[in-house]
Amino acid sequence: MCGAPDQDGLPTLEVSAREAVVHGVVSRAGQPLPGAYVRLLDGTGEFTAEVQSSATGYFRFYAADGDWTLRTLAPGQVVDVAVTAVLGRAVEAAVKVPA
Amino acid sequence: MSRADVLVDADWVQTRRDDPKVVLVEVDEDVSAYDGGHIAGAVRMDWTTELQAPFERDVVDKAGFEALLSGKGIGNDDTVVVYGGNNNWFAAYAYWEFKLYGHADVRLLDGGRKKWELDGRELVKGVPERPATSYTAQEQDLSIRAFRDEVVASIGSKNLIDVRSPDEFSGKIKAPAHLPQEQSQKAGHIPTAINVPWSKAAADDGTFRSDDELAALYGGQGFDDAQSTIAYCRIGERSSHTWFVLHELLGKQDVKNYDGSWAEYGSLVRVPVQKDV
Question: In terms of CB atoms within 10 Å, which end of chain A has fewer, N or C?
């Protein structure tokens, strides 16, 4: 289960027909928030994967078609964002952590 | 054995940061995480290239484990504290392997690097220099490792704990999204297995739930204390985490990790498979 995709770099994505990308930026007070822990939870609420936001606050998951929850942990805070992934597309999800 | 013998918190680590007999080992799914910062004094272990055999699908052999620990500067009498990301997922795999080769004193840092970071504790980039040792491993302790024949023979007679997600258990998917898709030939689960996803044993911050909560979690799914237990997932890492919970935290007797797991079982010829979708 090694090698979750690289979290660095800007989202210039070529999404194949078999991929369903969910990506975005974690921010706080309008500023990118690096180092936040973003979890991908499936439709049953079960943990699927976890990544850290990059230096630019960016995160990316290769999900599957369907409904997901992004649960983001920053010091002292937890934010849930619902997102629907679609095959062949990169769906953007902004995560705003309260200031 | 008690929780304190196998699980430590950040303060425990901080107060021993200058103790050369306490060795921190970081093991991450993302093996580059260490480079971005790690707990002072920690050495890195790469689960893909150092803890597994180079060609076969197996753990590294005894001589390889001895060479690995010797090279990292870990002695037989050192206290090893393993930690990592993703709820200590791969750290728990390393812990199981240390126990497999008979290391006397190994513990997990509760919450791993996530809790350490969320609590605002320091990470450093300097790599420690530890003089090489001459480590001697024991023969594998097969009382904590199950192989396929035993698993097949255990259907209906032991607790079989499938720790994958409900969608993997039911056979809807063969592998979780996002991660590399090492796959079995068939989808589903071992008949009579109960499904207790590994991550339910930990809180969002990665710390293990209390003994009472854990006992209720497994008991509520039909865990039978009168039976021996085999835990499995897809390739044996998530089930190491559950093995740690059942054997090390809750002190259940005769608990094994089936590291062949579904990637092996779901590719075997003429074994029963249950599919729910």
Answer: C
Give yes or no for a contact between A95 and A38, defined as CB atoms under 8 angstroms apart.
Answer: yes
Residue B46 contacts A, CB cutoff 8 Å: no
We find that the CATH architecture of domain A20-97 is Sandwich (2.60)
Domains of chain B listed by start with CATH number: 3-140 (3.40.250.10), 144-265 (3.40.250.10)
Report, in angstroms and rounded to the nearest whole number, the Rg of chain A calculated over CA atoms.
Answer: 13
- Spatial contact of B197 and B165, defined as CB atoms under 8 Å apart: yes
Distance from CA of A59 to the nearest CA of B (A): 12
Complex ipTM more than 0.85, yes or no = no
**Is A84 a residue whose pLDDT tops 70?**
yes
Instruction: Give counts: helices (H), strands (E), chain B.
Output: 10, 9
pTM, 2 dp: 0.93
Is A73 within 8 Å of B31 when comparing Cβ atoms?
Answer: no
Q: What is the pLDDT of residue A7?
A: 45
Q: What is the pLDDT of residues B100-157, one digit of tens each?
A: 999 999 999 999 999 999 999 999 999 999 999 999 999 999 999 999 999 999 999 9
